[in-house]
Specification:
The chain is mostly helical. Helices cover 65% and strands 0% of the residues. Helix 1 packs parallel to helix 4.
Length: 245
């Protein structure tokens, strides 16, 4: 999710409502549902919840790799904290109910899904190794790129002298959508930590959605809002992947 301000009459672009509004009830519900999913992840790992779930589904489930499963739940918690900061500090645009419900379902699918792929549905326990170090590094770097770039822009926009101008500094000088790129990096690390190839469907799907859906809609909105200022920025800056694309 990206912070952009505008008038309340602006239509949806890239699948989200970009009007400048608080939508506090939606954001509070969004955060509450997300942290409920995260709490469920820890319950599944630590308090016999997986056994109870397996029994309800007439399956014998147990956490095969408790350490990896617990770290994967921790990844969900880190993501939830970042999401909370984004909703209530970094995000100025409106969040509608459809976005809340759709994204909560998506978040639940990958947060619980990664946990099952990495900690439950495993043929043998994989000891933590350097691959896992790379995975955690990618997750942390991606998180820093996403939240860090948004934070830089938030601070810049708080200066009245910058009102009505397009932010092109900080991490955004390397990519027009460095925050989106950060999401793909962090989810690639998260997927790598599961040791399951199936988990990479999530960052792949995310990258495709960004490139072919969210970014074109957002670019059209920014071009309309900032005009020549944004167009000049777009001509000299990579669109998504720094130094590449």
């Amino acid at each position: 999710m990206t912070e952009h301000t505008q008038t309340a009459n602006t239509p949806k672009t890239g699948g989200v409502d970009r009007s400048h509004a608080t939508s506090f009830a939606q954001k509070l519900t969004f955060a509450g549902l997300h942290f409920t999913v995260i709490a469920w992840c820890f319950w599944l790992v630590s308090f016999g919840g997986l056994t109870a779930l397996g029994g309800a589904l007439n399956r014998e489930w147990e956490v095969a790799d408790h350490t990896r499963a617990l770290i994967l739940a921790g990844c969900a918690l880190l993501y939830g904290i970042r999401h909370f900061v984004t909703l209530f500090y970094l995000l100025a645009r409106r969040v509608d109910w459809g976005e809340v419900l759709g994204l909560v379902a998506f978040m639940a699918s990958f947060e619980v899904g990664f946990l099952l792929l990495g900690g439950v549905w495993v043929d043998e326990v994989q000891p933590l190794n350097w691959h896992d170090g790379v995975a955690v590094a990618l997750l942390l770097i991606g998180s820093a790129l996403n939240t860090g770039s948004e934070w830089q822009r938030k601070l810049w926009k708080q200066d009245p002298a910058n009102k009505g101008h397009c932010y092109t500094g900080g991490l955004f000088r390397y990519s027009m959508h460095i925050n989106y790129f950060g999401d793909v990096v962090l989810f690639s690390g998260w997927a790598l930590f599961t040791t399951s190839v199936w988990a990479f469907s999530v960052p792949l799907l995310m990258a495709l959605m960004f490139v072919f859906f969210h970014i074109p809609g957002l670019d059209a909105y920014l071009s309309q809002r900032y005009g020549a200022e944004f167009d000049a920025y777009a001509k000299k800056t990579k669109r998504f992947i720094p130094f590449v694309y």
